[in-house]
Amino acid sequence: MSIVIRDVREHELDSILALNNAAGPTILPLDASRLKRFFDTAEYFRVAERDGNLTGFLVGFGSDSSHDSSNFRWFARQYGAFFYIDRIVVASRRRGGGVGRAFYADVQSYAEVRYPLLACEVFIEHDNDPARLFHGAFGFHEVGQHVMPETAVRASMLTKELCSYAWVRERYGDALPDTPWLRRTRHLPGPAQRSTGT
């Protein structure tokens, strides 16, 4: 009954699209072309499996990406370097079973050696107290609010400082050790592989 977090596979995009669009008003709907763009450009795009079934996904972008979300651009105006969680979706039958916490542990492990800050948002209008409580319990705090021009939905903008980043950056700079748990599995270049800093 363990949860497996792994990189997405292209043949799973139809299932992920259905999962996203069944999530309700707290997640913006997607179409197939935008999801494919996520697949092609996201620095982090992973799925959760439990008992061999797809139970959720998380998509994230580094601050130097060209991601076109207005929430991402809001964070880009406020902060120099951050890792942005665009969306996390967990199948309704699996909510409360630890999938969200497994995703956040995984994405934090990825981000904290590459970025000083984890950023995301939670919609305010849709009685989303469970999501706000989840993020607060995970160490996020509100740094502002933003009304998304494309939807007129107000979002609570959240960040979490990644305390390991400063030590890792001081010790290793842009060259992380070549160990399996740090090795990138996606084909996209990340800050640890670029010659410029984050």
CATH homologous superfamily title: Gcn5-related N-acetyltransferase (GNAT)
How far the N terminus sits from the C terminus, by CA atoms, comes to 38 Å
Q: Summarize the amount of helix as a percent range.
A: 25-40%
Mass-distribution shape:
globular
Question: Any idea how many domains?
Answer: 1
The CATH architecture comes to 3-Layer(aba) Sandwich
CA radius of gyration is 16 Å
User: Number of helix segments?
Assistant: 6
CATH class: Alpha Beta
DSSP E strands, number: 7
Pfam families: Acetyltransf_1
Protein name: GNAT family N-acetyltransferase
Organism: Luteimonas endophytica
Keywords: Acyltransferase, Transferase
Ordered list of secondary-structure elements with their pairings:
Elements: E1 3-7, H1 13-21, H2 32-41, E2 44-50, E3 53-62, H3 70-78, E4 83-90, H4 99-111, E5 117-123, H5 129-137, E6 141-147, E7 154-161, H6 164-172
Parallel strand pairs: 4-5
Antiparallel strand pairs: 1-2, 2-3, 3-4, 5-7, 6-7
